[in-house]
Write a structure and sequence with these properties.
By secondary structure, the protein is an alpha/beta fold. Helix content is 56%, strand content 8%. It folds into three domains: 119 residues, P-loop containing nucleotide triphosphate hydrolases (Rossmann fold); 64 residues, Helicase, Ruva Protein, domain 3; 126 residues, Zinc Finger, Delta Prime, domain 3 (Up-down Bundle). The chain is built from 16 helices and seven strands. Helix 10 packs antiparallel against helix 11, helix 12 packs parallel to helix 16 and helix 15 runs antiparallel to helix 16.
Length: 333
C-alpha cells in the first residue's frame, strides 16, 4: 500500500469506442495513470459491472462519494455504463458539481452508448477518451500515439510492417508491444527482423472458435484455442476474458426474449446478426442461473488478472476456460 501524495487526476473519465479490445486496452492505460503506482487492490472498486440486472446507480454514487480509507485515492470503475438510464445519468452528473475530492469515476462503454448528459459532464470536468477509428487519419493518429508511448521503440520500417499486419485489428497493438517489451526489454528499438517472429496469424483466431469449444464442453479443444490466441502477437488474458464476458452477458440479456432470429437479437444488442444469433442460441440453451454462474466465474477471473491471485495471466485464462467448458458441457437443455 502506498502513502504517496495524490497527483492531480480527472474526477471522471469516460472510455468509449466500437472495439471491445481497444476499449479494454484504453481502460488499462487510464487505470495505470490514475493509480500512479498505487495498489489496485486497495484503490480500485468496480461497481455495477455486467449482467442482466439493472445497474445500481445509488451504489455507484455511494462508492464515488465515500472518502477513501487508508489510501489517498479511490477509483470507481463502472463497466457497461451504457446501461445507466437517463434518470441515473442525471443523478451521477449531480455528483460532479462539484466532484468529490480524491476520487475518480471511470465509465466504460459496453453494448450501449453512454448517455449524452454524462458525456457532456465528463467533457467539462474530466476526460472523454474515444478509441473509435473510423477514418484513415484516425487510425494513423491512434498508431502514432501508441508507438510513441509504447514500452519499446519501433523503427520506421517496423512501424509500417506492424501497421500493415494489424489492418483493422488495432485492439491487438498493445499486446504485441507488451510481448516485444517482454522479449527484448523496455526501451529497446525493434526493427523489422526483430518484429517478424512476433507477427504470425495467431492473434487473428476468432473468439467464436473459443466460445464454440467452451459451449460444447470440449476442454481440450478450448485450451488449444487459448494457446493459439495467446501466442506471440496474440490476445492478452484481459482481452480474452472481456470477450467471454461480452458473449455470456449478451446471452443473459436475451434470456427469455420473445425473438426468433439473429436480426431480432441484433436489434436488441446492436452490432451484426451473426454474433447476436450465437448469443441467442446460448440464451435458449441455458437457464438464467447457469448464465449467472458463468458470469460469476468470469468476474472472479477478472479480479485475478488484476492481482487477486499469484497465478500467471495464462494460467488464469486456462482455468477460467476449463471451468466454463465443464459447466456448459454439463448442461443438457
Amino acid at each position: 500500500m502506498t502513502t504517496k501524495k495524490a497527483a492531480a487526476a480527472p474526477p471522471v473519465v469516460i472510455v468509449t469506442g466500437e472495439d471491445d479490445a481497444m476499449i479494454g486496452s484504453e481502460v488499462r492505460i487510464v487505470l495505470e495513470e490514475l493509480l500512479a503506482g498505487r495498489d489496485p487492490a486497495f484503490v480500485v472498486e468496480e461497481v455495477g459491472g455486467v449482467g442482466p440486472e439493472e445497474i445500481d446507480v445509488g451504489a455507484i454514487i455511494d462508492a464515488f462519494t465515500t472518502p477513501p480509507f487508508l489510501v489517498d485515492r479511490r477509483i470507481v470503475v463502472v463497466r457497461d455504463a451504457g446501461r445507466i438510464d437517463a434518470d441515473g445519468a442525471k443523478r451521477l452528473v449531480a455528483t460532479l458539481s462539484p466532484p468529490p475530492p480524491d476520487a475518480a469515476l471511470v465509465l466504460v462503454k459496453g453494448s450501449k452508448a453512454i448517455p449524452r448528459s454524462l458525456i457532456k459532464a465528463a467533457s467539462s470536468v474530466g476526460h472523454v477518451v474515444d478509441v473509435s477509428v473510423r477514418k484513415a487519419a484516425e487510425k494513423k493518429n491512434y498508431l502514432a500515439e501508441h508507438f510513441r508511448h509504447g514500452s519499446v521503440r519501433l523503427s520506421v520500417g517496423a512501424q509500417n510492417m506492424l501497421s500493415a499486419h494489424l489492418g483493422e485489428e488495432l485492439g491487438r497493438l498493445d499486446s504485441i508491444l507488451a510481448t516485444l517489451a517482454a522479449a527484448y526489454g523496455d526501451g529497446v528499438t525493434v526493427d523489422e527482423e526483430m518484429l517478424k517472429p512476433f507477427l504470425g496469424s495467431r492473434g487473428s483466431v476468432p473468439i467464436f472458435d473459443l466460445t464454440d469449444a467452451v459451449e460444447r464442453g470440449n476442454i481440450a479443444i478450448a485450451l488449444g484455442v487459448v494457446d493459439r490466441m495467446m501466442g506471440p502477437g496474440g490476445a492478452s488474458g484481459h482481452e480474452i476474458v472481456a470477450s467471454l464476458d461480452n458473449h455470456l452477458t449478451k446471452a443473459a440479456r436475451l434470456h427469455g426474449a420473445a425473438i426468433r432470429s439473429g436480426e431480432d437479437a441484433a436489434a436488441i444488442l446492436g452490432g451484426h446478426a451473426y454474433p447476436a444469433k450465437k448469443a441467442l442460441d446460448l440464451s435458449r440453451r441455458l437457464d438464467i442461473e447457469d448464465l449467472a454462474g458463468c458470469i460469476r466465474l468470469i468476474a472472479e477471473a477478472d479480479l485475478d488478472l488484476k492481482g487477486g491471485s499469484g497465478l500467471s495471466e495464462r494460467m488464469i485464462v486456462e482455468i477460467l476456460v476449463a471451468r466454463l467448458a465443464r459447466t456448459l458441457g454439463a448442461v443438457r437443455h
